[in-house]
Structures are given as structure tokens and as C-alpha cells.
Amino acid sequence: MESVLRLHQLHKAYAEFVLDHIDLEVPGGYVTGLIGPNGAGKTTTIKLIMNLIRADSGGVEVFGLKHDRHEIQIKDRVGYVGEEQFFYEQRSAAWTGNFVSHFFSAWDPDAFDHYLDRFELPPKKRIKKYSKGMKVKLSLAIALSHAPELIILDEPTSGLDPVVRREVIDLLHRAAAEENKTVLISSHITDDIERIADYIVYMVQGRIAIYASKDELLSSWKTIHFKQDSVPASVLESLEHVETQMFGSTGITRDFPVIEGDLTEGISSGSIRVESVGLDDILIALVNGD
Amino acid sequence: MLRLIQKFSLMYAFYLAMYAFLMFPLLNYDRISGPDTENPIYIFYQGGFLIWMVLGALWAHENMEHKTNAYRFLRTLPLGGIKIIGAKFTLVFMSVFLFIVYQSGMIRILTGSAQLATATWQYLCVLGSLCLILAGLAYMGIYRFGFVVFGKLLLGIWMLLFLSPILLRQFILPPLKLTVDDVLGFVTGLNWVAVSLIGTALFWAMLPLAARINIHGKV
Amino acid sequence: MFIVISPLNPDPMYKQVTDQIKDAIADGSLKPEDRLPSIREMARELKISEITIKRAYTDLENEGYILTRSGLGSFIADINRAKLRREKLVQARNEIRKILNTGKRFGIEPSDLVDIIQKLGDDK
After folding, report:
1. Which residues in chain C have their CB less than 8 angstroms from residue A271's CB?
2. How many CB atoms lie under 10 A from the CB of residue B104?
3. What are the residues of chain A with a beta carbon less than 8 Å away from any beta carbon of chain C?
4. Touch between C and A (at least 3 CB pairs under 8 Å)
5. Residues of chain A contacting residue B215, judged by C-beta atoms under 8 Å apart
6. N or C of chain B: less Cβ packing under 10 Å?
């Protein structure tokens, strides 16, 4: 599996926050989701990849090219949607499309018009009058209209209503599945990532806490509900964040396949129940674990 | 890059046009209509105006770019810092050049004096070189300290520049027992070709420096 | 009493509550005259809305499993276990029908299932 994006010991220190020597390889042709609480370093990481800020140390390679030396070539092949959208706001979407078309080697004006139409963006209206969600959609339209091999999105769905959000997510999924594009998407709406991601990166406090395939993650993390004193000590040891209340206890495990055997008896007698987790349950466990 | 220059050219075109149609006739009214064509004070003023006009256009352009977060938009596109800032430097350079050509050419046409036109040309080339260096420094300042801070400073300098011919003539030169003629004599005494070459070379050498600061600077 | 509310369970939440209280009555962990937690207390512990609990208690009361004495709270009624048993039998019947249908697709005969049930019963 070839990696399209490689971060090597990437380090950036701010007064209040440190992105701490991150290593990451994003495989080509898949959707990788970047999950983390606010302030975990998702945006910093993405800005470093896009060479919008300078790293203190460490390296970024995109398509095997050094990201600072080959900036123009890389940005030509990357579709980027940032956490904030910037345009010449006195101008229209049509003007913007024409303006940026001069800089991308593979700009497709028909595709751009198609996305404007599909996202219901009035091409002649000043961007200043667009809503936040419309600006995100315009940014997406630009990102998708120059045949990018890698699509990097920083919280793209946060300003969108659920209907458009779903549409955007499906669009990205199709890009990865059918057109073999690579997608790196950060979001705190884990729902979006759960639907389309193949790989998940959890960032907590400037570090990568977990990097695994989604399926692997969801089959090894489980929520366990149990009657007090009904589980063996070995199980109890692998449970995190055990909460006990009047009607039983609940914990989360990251080693379900390991403890599964010890649970069968409790499960059949009804004193233990195992439940699938969502990506946000894992996030909460990771954040509270610190 | 042509597309960028085109996008950025608004303010420069505006200032150049304002000079050509408004300030030039005003500044040169006496010389064109009267017999007093040889008074050096006229040439003296043109130099200040060149710097004032180009820095004015630069400030107005950067102010507009700052307000629209233009750099943050442009940085997401496949444009390196060199291309973005190169377009800006090219506009500065073109403005200085056009100003010198226009000014000297008009003097030649309107006064019919080849000697005066040549003197104007040589004098403005020296001042133009100074202007280029100031513009390069201004860009580095903006990128290093951000437009919010450095833009204000630049605006202050710009206003002082407007008064500088008067300040120079009234308050600075008399105590030094110098006259406008002495200054002009000094400037025209310089090897204008050498100064222009040095000024131009320094200006373009500042481009990669400014780009390096800008890539991660505060704009 | 062991109650788990699961958002993944297709049953509505009030039904999950009533079913599990009935289970607790059936296995004897709740006995007649035992006092149930107040609606508010139950809602807080299970982290679900009071309206849901209220609905569950009303249903249980209508079906005769609990009694509410004003000012004192809700108590387990002295119901005959036969009623519970009947209800469970209906449920079991539905489950067995599902298993039979699945088995049919794989060529598993009802007699094979009877064997399994017999054997599992012997193990206990």
C-alpha cells in the first residue's frame, strides 16, 4: 500500500499548545478520518501539510515530494478545504472560478459549473453575501474541480445543514471509492467520519493516540454493561472508565477479542451485555483517559 | 503570473492615472504656461512625487488585500510566495518605470527642451531606484510585522513624504546652508546608470527574501 | 436490578425499561412490595428523560405489575407469576419461529432443533 502523504516527526510548538513529533502515513485511495477534540492539533497538522504555517522541525512529504520545495506542484494536485474560507469576497463565484482556473493545470470549468449548480450557489452573486455554508460549498467546488489526487478537508461539514452534509460526505466517499482518490478529512462530527472513513486517526493533545483501520477499531472497542460482581477480574482489568450506578455498571474495553471468551457465560445468563461503540465513544474514552 | 498582476493592478493603475491626469498638469502648470522652464524646483518636486505615488499605491493595494484576507486565499492555490509577491514587485517596478517615462516624455513634448527632459530622466532614475528599495523594504516590513502594525507605520511615512519637499526646503536645508540646487546638483552628479542598476538589483534581490518571510508571516 | 438502555436496540426506550423490570420480577430480584426508585431517580441514573420513565411506569401499572401509592411511590404488585410466564411463552414462541425459518433455509429440520433444546436443557 503506497502512502500519498507522510509526516515524519512533525513538530510545532505554540505558547499554549504543542504538536508533538507526529508520525503518520496516509494510504493512497482511501478515506482517512482525523478525529479529536477542539485544540487537539487537527487544524495545525493540516495547515502544516499545506505549508500554510512553518514547522519547527520534522518533514512532510506529499506524493513523495517535499512539501515546501514542491509547493506549487503539490497544491496543483491537492484539493483543500480549510476550516475558514477566504475569497475575494466582493467578487462572485463565477469570477473566482475564472480567476483560479489560471493557476490549476487540470482545471475543469464544466465540473465547476456543475458543482455550483449542484450546491445551489448563485454564480453571479457576490461571495460577501454568501452564508458560511455556501462559502464552504464554494471551497469544495474549487477543490473538486481541478482533478485532485488528494483531497484534504478541515472540518468541512461543520457549517452545513444535515442534508448538504450527507451529500458532501457521499461525494467524498464516491471520490475515494470510484475514482481512487485519497481523502484526509478532519471533523469533530464523528458521524460523518464513521460513515466513510477507512482509517481513523485519533489526535489528543497534540499527539496521535490511535491510528487504525475503522473496522479493526470498531471490532476491538466495545461497551460492556454488567451486573456488579458478575465479571471476572481479568475482564475488569481491561475495562476503562467504569461507571457504576443503581442499575449496573458500564465500562469500555479496547481489547474485546481478548476478553470475549471470559464474557460468554455472563452474556448467556443475562448479567453481561456487550454493545458496539461509536467513534465518539472511543474519543471520549481517550480524552478522559488522559 | 500575468493573471495575478492583472488582479493586483487596480490601485497602481488608479494612482498612475491620477498622477497623469491630475497631478501632472497641476505640478507643471507654471512650467508649461510660463517662461520659467528652467526653475529646478519643478524637477525637485517630481522626485518626491514618484516615491509618494508608488508607495501610496502599494499601501492602498496592501490595505485592500489585507481586508479581504487575500494572502490566505492565494496561499491555498498552487502559487508559491515568489509568484504572488513577484507579481506585486513587478507592478511596483512597472509603475516606477512608467512614471519616469511619462514624466520625462511629457517634459520633452511640452517644453521642447531635450536638455531638461534628459535631466528629468536622470534625476528620476536615481529617485526611482530609491523608491524601489523603499518599496522592497516596505514589503518585508509588512510581511514581518503584519499589515495591521506596519501598514500604519507606512501610512505615517507616506504622509511625512508628502510634506518632505516643504520640510526639506524650509527647515532642513537652510540650517545646513544648502539649497535645492545643491541637492539637485548632488543627485545629478551621481552616475545615474550605476545607481539605477544597483537599485534595481537590490530591489529584485529583496523578492526572495520577502517571499521567505511572507510564506509564514502575518498578513 | 440490572437495567441497560441501548440506543442501538430497536425497541423504544420505555419498552426497554418495562421489559427489564419484568425480567427482574421474573428472576426474583424484585419481589412484591419492593419499592421502585422514583421516576426522577430512575431517569437520572439511566440518563434518559423522565417522560420515558413515566410512560414505562404507567404501562407497568396498567398491566398490573406495579402499584403506585400516592405520596409513597411505586411498589411491585403481588402478581401471579403465571401471567409473566404466559407473556414469556408468547415471546419464546416468536423467537422459535424465527429460528425455524432460519433453519429451513439451511436444511435444518425442526427435529434437529428439538434435539438441541433437549441437550441444552440437560446441561443446565
Report:
1. 2
2. 21
3. 225, 227, 245-248, 250, 270-271, 273, 275-276
4. yes
5. 51, 54
6. N
A271 contacts C1? CB cut-off 8 A:
no
Q: Could you say which DSSP state residue B203 is in?
A: H
Q: Which residue of B has its CA nearest to A86?
A: B73
The pLDDT of residue B57 is 93
Residues C24 and C69 in one domain: yes
pLDDT of residue A97: 95
Choose the CATH number for A3-215 among 3.10.180.10, 2.30.300.10, 3.40.50.300, 3.90.320.10: 3.40.50.300
Residue numbers in chain A where pLDDT is lower than 70: 1, 290
- Quick one: C69 and C100 in the same domain? no
In a domain, C104, yes or no: yes
Here the cell at position A191 is 458521524
> Are C23 and C53 contained in the same domain?
yes
Instruction: Show residues of chain A in contact with C42, CB under 8 Å.
Output: 246
d(CA C75, CA A238): 38
What ipTM describes this predicted complex?
0.86
Using CA coordinates, name the residue in chain A closest to C124: A269
Contact status of B76 with chain A (Cβ, < 8 Å): yes
Q: Which residues are bridge partners to A222 per DSSP?
A: A253, A276
Domain map of chain B by residue range? 2-30+38-216
CB contact under 8 A, A247 and C4: yes
pLDDT in tens, A161-184: 888 888 888 888 888 888 889 999
What CATH number is associated with residue C30?
A: 1.10.10.10
Q: Which of C25, C14, C13, C12 minimizes the C-alpha distance to C64?
A: C25
Same domain (yes/no): C61, C91: no
What digits encode the pLDDT tens for the residues B25-79? 777 766 666 655 556 666 777 788 888 889 999 999 999 999 888 989 999 999 8
> Does C109 fall in a domain?
yes
pLDDT of residue B38: 59
B104-137 pLDDT, tens per residue?
888 888 877 788 888 888 889 999 999 999 999 9
Q: Are residues C103 and C65 in the same domain?
A: no
pLDDT at A46: 95
Chains B and A touch (3+ CB pairs under 8 A): yes
For chain C, the domain total comes to 2
* CB burial string B30-66: b at 16+ within 10 A, e below: ebeeeeebeebebbbbbbbbbbbbbbbbbbbbbeebb
Residue of A nearest to C6 (CA): A275
- Domain assignment of residue C93, given as a range: 81-123
Query: A12 and A44 in contact (C-beta within 8 Å)?
Result: yes
The pLDDT score that the predictor gives to residue B175 is 81
